[in-house]
Amino acid sequence: MKKSLLSLFILFFLITACKEEEEPIIYCGVENPAESLTWLNTLTDELNDSYFGVYFYVTAGKYQNQEVFLIRNCCPNCNTIISVYDCEGKVLGFLGRDGAGIDPTEIKNEVIIWKGTGFECTV
Length: 123
Description:
Blueprint: H1 2-17, E1 26-27, E2 30-31, H2 33-36, H3 38-49, E3 56-63, E4 66-73, E5 83-85, E6 91-94, E7 108-115
Antiparallel strand pairs: 1-2, 3-4, 3-7, 4-5, 5-6
């Protein structure tokens, strides 16, 4: 009986010890910027409360060596201009090609940091 309990304990320890903890998302010097940055939190709350909130998401990445945020969506009926924001919430420009904005290929290491409630995209 003792050997069985010891074996179960060791097995339980090995299973739980092998789980990797997710690294927190840190941008602009804060953990979870969608909640910690006031301007971004206000913006995501407004997006979430909108009719099209299920299509919106926010990504973070690097543009010209600075951390940036992009408000994206997968709305099938929207013709959207994607804004690029700095850490203070200032619009740096809009995604575009051929000199009409920020070239999307210049955004590096982009990750999703927020999704609307009931998010319907497959990104």
